[in-house]
Amino acid sequence: MYEEALTDRGKELFPLLSRFKDFYLVGGTALALQIGHRKSVDFDMFITDGLPDRLLQNVKRVFSDSSIVVTYNVPGQLNLFIDGIKATFFHFEYPVVEPLLNLDGVSLVSKQEIAAMKAFSIGKRLSYKDYVDWYFLLSEQHVLLQDVIALANKKFGGDFNERLFV
Hints:
Layout: H1 8-13, E1 24-26, H2 27-35, E2 42-47, H3 55-62, E3 68-74, E4 77-82, E5 85-91, E6 101-103, E7 106-108, H4 111-121, H5 128-139, H6 145-156, H7 162-165
Parallel strand pairs: 2-5
Antiparallel strand pairs: 1-2, 3-4, 4-5, 6-7
Helix pairs in contact: 2-4, 2-5, 4-6
Protein name: Nucleotidyl transferase AbiEii toxin, Type IV TA system
InterPro entries: AbiEii (IPR014942)
């Protein structure tokens, strides 16, 4: 794992994410920790079941020595900054289909599953960082396009539109 993918403050906060046992890290940070292709500045924590009722209180307790600024809090999603680092806790209805990885007690989805999730999100909310992630995933042969498509179909079923992706 490439812990240097985190900022200095991110490295300090990361182990505390292990206290959110039902959540798993996704997105660019989970990918950067696995392939070391860039620095990452946020934590995207997903859960398949609904968000716990007292999630915000738990976040404030776990990060009690940190500055917490809530930017969005609705059923199914909590966005906030922890000492300036963006964190999102999100209810994601689709199942995890690959075995989760573990880093310092924090669950992460595999790079293959991250690629499938990014394939699903194309056309919905792709950012510059997503294109950087795709470049490294494909150019360094971390994933094969046909495997990503197969995994996205398995994970998202009929909700995945292969034609929008390729």
